[in-house]
Amino acid sequence: MAARQAKARLSNSPDQQPDLRCPEILDVAQLLADIGEIARSGGDSRAALLQHMRSVNKQGRKAIEAMLFEDGSGILCARRISWLQDELIRAISDFALTHVFATPNLSSAERVAVLAVGGYGRGTLAPGSDIDLLFLLPYKQTALGEQCAEFLLYLLWDMGFKVGHATRSVDECIRLSLSDFTIRTAVLDRRLITGNQQLFDEMSRRFDDEVVAGSSAEFIAAKLAERDARHARSGDTRYLVEPNVKEGKGGLRDLNTLFWIAKYHYHADTREELVALGVLSRREGRLFGKADDFLWAVRCHMHFLTGKAEERLSFDLQPEIAERLGYNTHPGLKGVERFMKHYFLIAKDVGDLTGILCAALEEENAKEAPAGLRQWLGNLRQRSRSIPGTLAFQIDSNRITVTSKTVFAEDPVNLIRIFTLAARHELEYHPDALKLIRRSLLLINQDLRDNAEANSLFLDVLTDRNNPELHLRRMSEAGVLGRFIPEFGKIVAMMQFNMYHHFTVDEHLLRSIGVLSRIERGLYQDELPVVASIISTVKDRTALYVALLLHDIAKGRPQDHSVAGAEIARQICPRFGLDERETELVSWLVQEHLTMSMVAQQRDLNDRKTILDFAEKVQSLERLRLLTILTVCDIRAVGPGVWNGWKGQLIRTLYWESEPMLTGGFTQTSRANRVQVARTELAQALADWPEADKQAALDIHYENYFLTTPLEDQVRLAHFIRESASSGFVASVRTDSFRGMTEITVIAPDHPRLLSTIAGGCAAAGANITDAQVFTMSDGRALDIVTVSRQFPQDEDEMRRGDRIVRNIRDLLGGKEAVPTLLARRPVRDLSSFVVRPQVRVDNELSNALTVIEVEGLDRPGLLCDLTGAMSDLNLDIRSAHISTYGEKVVDVFYVTDLLGMKVTGENRIERIERRLMSVLESAEGEASSSSSSNTALAFGMVQP
């Protein structure tokens, strides 16, 4: 009850320091009495003091954690920890002066002030935060001052604290603050813990007069540049699914930046003062407080849970933090997903507040300019910022802004028109305009959503020829997009709790629009040759952009998001002004947006039935083109490293194989022609080879190799095959730091267990396969290329790991090691936070000649070996395998026959296969097998001669 009352007091006066003195945390009088008794007891008083202080700190933090669970206030928790830390430092300092050095009365030269600076100076600490101290001296260090500081610091270190400290005179503080913005910022957040008040006051006065006065502009510029650099290092997005709560975009450091700017420029220490100055509205002030409290609660729970200063909200922490904060599962959304949605909405609020403060600063700077200069600048702007066709908006320094504060109230369509004009004239947005937009969001009602002009203007933004992603992003950040399209508003800041998607749903949709725009502008001619060549032939450009915007809009609902999204598209498209044919096309694209990716990566593209079934679903060449473009944009927008040349080659192959089915047999590039072109290109790339070697390099591969392998890889592999012509087993390792992958290439005599053996070597090293290509060559050898997730940041370390994988494979093939022995030593990745329902499907309709077995389940080291080993035990012949991974979930598809080369048809046998493979998926360790793997692959095709 007392904790709840304290939180209520804080809510009423958000920045006033509450009275945190609480016997549950620390009885200060009792602590002083206890350490006095320690001093009088004799013996090793320091050891006794250390033991007692450790106990006091442990008990106090345990009480603070309990209070965090009771009242839920993150900011109160941070202040309680700071208060506890203050009292411990005061007690230790008092013990040192009074009992260790027996000098309670200091001379003027020995005056010392112990200051908290940085985050600790603001009176807030997370459980694992550094303790930043400044020992402030009047002149130079004295022997007594040095001894006292050492006693305090060493005791704090021995207690387990990470203490950052500096010892400086007042003059040194002022001099260093003038030259170093990091030091200036730390001193800005200063607070006296113990020691001489006059010395502290002197430094504060001189800091304000000699450092702060007249330097607001340079300080603000430095802090904003520092923020931008920090954002760039983290990917410049606040929608990473494993965000850094402290340093990430929209995190606590961004709020700190606002605090610093407000304190430095406005001399305001509280949000209430910013509201009183008119910088923030009352609503925005409350928003500031909510964001600060929420982020502190998350951070404190993370530190308490992990027992260390963990700042990254990783997948394994998210469910536990969600549970600690009381988030429950709702239909379509897990509790952890609801928690992360709230987190990202808070991060967005932090971004909005930054924009509002920047607008206020810019307006104030304009007012502070000399009158003559103000008039001259005003006249110049007036001549250069008018926008033809509108009186509501104007241009200010290449940014669109409003001509008055009533433009949206007078005509709500202007809330959409401003983005259209900005896109048309390639303008950025003035902070004043964005602030007014955010304060006018209630004007976006059903009447505006049904307004034909507003919808037409929105389509102009969506299909802009230059940079639609930028303007849609600004529209979303301002809150307009989510209110104008309420279905989009439901997925704003929504994360999917899996390891496949790197961004929130709305961020993914906006990035996919950006990819499409760049394709249209010819920026991917070499990297994406098919979509680059067909984009100009697309007739339904508007439908394509609308479909891309809507393809994941139904995420977070109980039903399949593709089906539900198609229904949403049927409702929204007529509102946008699309006719019946266009509406049906958009709906179809949304419903089938995963089909091409699934077929390309999980089906055998050499099986004619696969192509026939896909073509029957697509039905027209225009749909094929649109679906191909949408698929590429979708995959590329998932996150870094998800798209690669292998996936691109698979999608190109599926496109070219399907095209003749949809054009009555006519295709611009037939299969035979494409194989011949690929052979010719490889021959040209090997022009300097002897003719016999060149011909051997061309003849050793079957058709599918040329259709599914990028040319640059063909050239590299040709050299590798040539060098290994006389070897029974040879392997190479290649790292790719940009994609975060390492590639293992193996050439060995082909045999039924080779796939499992190679995968077993990877699993034994704890390596997750993220891509794989397996080819049989005409000389009876197999060419296997597996790509595993990178583990080490340095290439040298990663190469050593790759060499260890190669040794594992060689030892397994040579009989020097057994798979169970290797697997017993493997590192295990913890995926216990994720739940994937295991499924096994045996299908005889997907292929005319082969049985297709599809398994789906939770990834784990050794899974592929267990699956393939079980199939061998079941007397199944694997003709091709397609191993797909979506983060923690695997979808593995095997094309098999019985040992006589026939389909598996008996009901009892099919049931036995399903039961055996299901037991592999459900097994915690997997069944014993003679081969093994870590299974996280994206496309795995075994090519038969």
TrEMBL record:
<dbReference type="Pfam" id="PF01909">
    <property type="entry name" value="NTP_transf_2"/>
</dbReference>
<keyword id="KW-0378">Hydrolase</keyword>
<dbReference type="InterPro" id="IPR002934">
    <property type="entry name" value="Polymerase_NTP_transf_dom"/>
</dbReference>
<comment type="function">
    <text>Modifies, by uridylylation and deuridylylation, the PII regulatory proteins (GlnB and homologs), in response to the nitrogen status of the cell that GlnD senses through the glutamine level. Under low glutamine levels, catalyzes the conversion of the PII proteins and UTP to PII-UMP and PPi, while under higher glutamine levels, GlnD hydrolyzes PII-UMP to PII and UMP (deuridylylation). Thus, controls uridylylation state and activity of the PII proteins, and plays an important role in the regulation of nitrogen metabolism.</text>
</comment>
<dbReference type="InterPro" id="IPR010043">
    <property type="entry name" value="UTase/UR"/>
</dbReference>
<comment type="similarity">
    <text>Belongs to the GlnD family.</text>
</comment>
<protein>
    <recommendedName>
        <fullName>Bifunctional uridylyltransferase/uridylyl-removing enzyme</fullName>
        <ecNumber>2.7.7.59</ecNumber>
        <ecNumber>3.1.4.-</ecNumber>
    </recommendedName>
</protein>
<dbReference type="InterPro" id="IPR045865">
    <property type="entry name" value="ACT-like_dom_sf"/>
</dbReference>
<dbReference type="Pfam" id="PF08335">
    <property type="entry name" value="GlnD_UR_UTase"/>
</dbReference>
<feature type="domain" description="HD">
    <location>
        <begin position="505"/>
        <end position="621"/>
    </location>
</feature>
<feature type="domain" description="ACT">
    <location>
        <begin position="852"/>
        <end position="931"/>
    </location>
</feature>
<dbReference type="GO" id="GO:0008081">
    <property type="term" value="F:phosphoric diester hydrolase activity"/>
</dbReference>
<dbReference type="InterPro" id="IPR043519">
    <property type="entry name" value="NT_sf"/>
</dbReference>
<dbReference type="InterPro" id="IPR003607">
    <property type="entry name" value="HD/PDEase_dom"/>
</dbReference>
<dbReference type="Pfam" id="PF01842">
    <property type="entry name" value="ACT"/>
</dbReference>
<dbReference type="GO" id="GO:0008773">
    <property type="term" value="F:[protein-PII] uridylyltransferase activity"/>
</dbReference>
<keyword id="KW-0460">Magnesium</keyword>
<keyword id="KW-0677">Repeat</keyword>
<dbReference type="GO" id="GO:0006808">
    <property type="term" value="P:regulation of nitrogen utilization"/>
</dbReference>
<keyword id="KW-0808">Transferase</keyword>
<feature type="domain" description="ACT">
    <location>
        <begin position="743"/>
        <end position="825"/>
    </location>
</feature>
<dbReference type="InterPro" id="IPR013546">
    <property type="entry name" value="PII_UdlTrfase/GS_AdlTrfase"/>
</dbReference>
<dbReference type="InterPro" id="IPR002912">
    <property type="entry name" value="ACT_dom"/>
</dbReference>
<dbReference type="Pfam" id="PF01966">
    <property type="entry name" value="HD"/>
</dbReference>
<feature type="region of interest" description="Uridylyltransferase">
    <location>
        <begin position="1"/>
        <end position="386"/>
    </location>
</feature>
<keyword id="KW-0511">Multifunctional enzyme</keyword>
<keyword id="KW-0548">Nucleotidyltransferase</keyword>
<dbReference type="InterPro" id="IPR006674">
    <property type="entry name" value="HD_domain"/>
</dbReference>
